[in-house]
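Problem: given the chain below (118 residues), write out its structure.
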Amino acid sequence: MAKPKKKTAKKPKKVAAAKKRWKPTAVTTKAELVAQLKESVDAGLSNKVTNQLYDNLFSILATSIKKKGRFSAPGFGTFKVKRRKAREGRNPQTGEKMKIKASKTVGFKPSPKYKGTL
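Solution.
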């Protein structure tokens, strides 16, 4: 007669870990921003690739603003070139008058949606 096989306890199936929902936090440095970007996507990006994405994103934004004069990010705001006129100013150390040349700068106007969250 054949011996009956011992019943082995079934191993419980591994339950997929619940995905941790990513929540943005405040950052003040490029390294912190890159770390947040890497954490926010579930693509297994390396630090090197995430840094390249960051650098390329801001290069594209800068080029767009320079060539087109503005860049609009829906739901966030608009970056726009602003022109400053030439004017007369004063040297704060000596008090003597000096001419300040006309220049360009970038201004930012938040969208109403973003402004409402501030």
